[in-house]
Amino acid sequence: MMPFDMTVWGAVALALRVAHWLALGLALAGLCVALRRALRREPFTPGLRLMAAGLLAAAACALLWPAAYAAAAAPAEVDGPGLASLALASGGAWFPPWDSLWTLSPDWPLPWRPDSAIPVSSHAVGQLWRTLIIGALLVLAGAAAAFLKGGRRLAAVLAGAALFALLPRPHPELLLAPATPATFRQPQAAFSAAGILAGQHLYEQACLQCHGKKADGQGPLAAQLATWPSVLGPALFRNRHAGDLYWSILQGGEKPLARHAFGPQLAQDEAWKILDYLRASAAGQEMRQSRGWRQAVAAPQMALSCRKHAVQELEGLRGSLVRIVAYSAGGIAPLPDPRVLTIALAPGLAGPRALPESIDCLASSAQAWQAYALVAGSASQDLAGAQFLVDRQGWLRSLWRPGDPSGWTLPESMCLPASTAAPQTHRGAPDLLRRIDATEVETPRFRSQI
Asked: Where would you find the membrane-spanning parts of this chain (predicted)?
């Protein structure tokens, strides 16, 4: 299940799912009453009315609960036309999963999801409005047919038939994006150095032969496949939800002959670890190609031992600006800076007391060194001396490498449109830290929970 905050929309979605099953129960009760009265040769209209009321209420809930769920799970993706179109595509939501009825995060029930990035034409919006208006009139005609008598009922039935014939059938792909049952899921475990390295090992076992060592689709078996393997680089994470990528690994992709359906072989947490490795690798590609992380990437979590702070993980330093230094024995110690907390990546050291006084905490695992080399786009042996800046929310913001004349990378690079070239910065540390605090990173679709 995905992490999910209780919000107004989340509570509304849960209430609508419960109300939906209650309405179906009401419709079934009405059917039983009608059959019982018919067997007794009594008027069975009251039972039919009860059944019609239950079906109308169930239909309303089936139309509305996916829209409320989407508004709770991905509020940034939701707009008016998308929600309305989603409601019209909610035929698959008639039977919400009973086993997850009381949870805030059931599987997504529809093959479509809202996406605010899809350009909406005036024609599509006009067709949507016509569908909504005629659909509302059709519901009124159905209600009238259930509760009126004689000639008025016949007129309501005929009006409903005419409205149904006139009802436009909007194409969901004009306003919505494809979805999977796992679309809104998020990984449970933190984005960590240990998880990234475990994901690399799993990738090499399950994916490398087709997708290649560099995830560029150039694996040893690529040419033998009916369809060429996908490139698993930065573009993979730009417009995709984490849950869709997770589903693709376990159940297979959109291509009919996709080979990566590893549901029986991989545990769920292993699929997330592969994605974490690919995300870290994609961040390194962005750094090599653009001198900046073009999509928000969290600083990988790692175990710490600190001089003065009672924290054991990087996450415990949230709220502070953090500088992470790839420190090698005999290397130049970083200058002290009271505005930041400084962490040394120094594999094998026993504790921070063996480090210069300018360093506050130590990350001594080899996994941490390797994970940060990956997100920096460097070979492990070339990382020594590099410095990372992490903002107060835990996002990687800027990188400095020894010998690089361009200095620190732009701290706002992940906030720029993808088509915009990242300008370089040569300004000093005070300006850099001020800009980090002044610019808030937008939560990405992949790993909205860090």
From this structure: 6-35, 47-68, 128-147
The pTM for the full model equals 0.82
Distance between CA atoms of residues 168 and 134, nearest Å: 8
- Under CATH, which number does the domain 305-438 receive? 3.40.30
Q: Which two tokens stand for residue 353?
A: 């007391």
Cβ neighbours of residue 119 under 8 Å, at least 6 residues apart? Answer: none
Among 245, 299, 295, 233, which residue's Cα sits nearest to residue 444?
A: 295
- C-alpha–C-alpha distance, residues 384 and 388, integer Å: 12
| Beta pairing, strands 361-363 & 305-306 | antiparallel
Which structure tokens are listed for 406? 């361009």
- Provide the 10 A C-beta neighbour count for residue 435: 16
Distance, in Å, from the CA atom of 220 to the CA atom of 175, rounded to the nearest integer, reads 39
Radius of gyration of the chain (CA): 28
Where does 89-214 have alpha helices with state H? 122-147, 150-166, 193-206, 208-211
SS3 253: coil
Please tell me the distance from the alpha carbon of residue 383 to that of residue 388, in angstroms, as a whole number: 11
SS3 category, 309 = coil
Percent of the chain with pLDDT over 70: 86
* pLDDT tens readout for residues 357-387: 889 999 999 999 999 999 999 999 999 999 9
CATH topology of domain 193-290: Cytochrome Bc1 Complex; Chain D, domain 2 (1.10.760)
CA 154 to chain centroid:
49
Task: For the chain, give every domain's residue range.
Answer: 8-177, 193-290, 305-438
